[in-house]
UniProtKB/TrEMBL annotation:
SUPFAM superfamilies: Hypothetical protein TM0160. GO terms for molecular function: nuclease activity. Residues 1-129 form the BFN domain. It comes from the Bacteria. This is Bifunctional nuclease family protein. It holds the Pfam family BFN_dom. InterPro entries: BFN_sf, Bi_nuclease_dom.
Length: 160
């Protein structure tokens, strides 16, 4: 996946991180906090600060300890909450650390690590078009899918 864009939910004014499948059509919207959106957006835009911000500091600490982030995986969706694992490697040992997806993505972008989403999470998060009866809920789901599939990152630049 790639960190495709950050946009704002018009109803709640909450930032939404859009992860999009590389070479594919699927997208995963994750509602995140403002601070995490700022951390992701600044890295997406390659904005540098005079002093390290929190995610930069975390990456610096890992490097000082001889560890590196190799990948992150959004691995679960329970009760409308996404979960992620950060995979670290140190001296040939592989460690996995539980994280919020927004923090994991902010770190992955800084570390140049791959971003993955488990198939089960994608299946749970996107309403299926197959076997659904016509209803207001399925119409809303179809409209949301169309919006996500047609997002242009240039149209949704996060404003700081």
């Amino acid at each position: 996946m790639t960190a495709h864009a950050i946009t704002i939910d018009a109803k709640s004014n909450s930032p939404i991180l859009i992860l999009k499948e590389r070479g594919g059509e699927r997208a995963l919207p994750i509602w995140i906090g403002l601070l995490e959106a700022t951390a992701i957006a600044t890295e997406m835009e390659k904005i540098e600060f005079a002093r390290p911000m929190t995610h930069d500091l975390a990456l610096n600490l890992l490097a000082a300890l001889g560890a590196r982030i190799t990948r992150i995986v959004v691995n679960d969706l329970r009760d409308n909450t996404y979960y992620a694992l950060i995979t670290l490697e140190k001296d040939g040992e592989v460690l996995e650390v539980d994280a919020r997806p927004s923090d994991a993505v902010a770190l992955a972008l800084r570390a140049g690590a791959e971003i993955f989403v488990e198939e089960a999470v994608l299946a749970k998060s996107v309403p299926s078009r197959e076997g659904t009866e016509a209803s207001a809920d399925s119409d809303k789901a179809d409209k949301w899918l169309e919006i996500l599939e047609g997002l242009d990152p240039e149209a949704f630049k996060y404003k700081m």
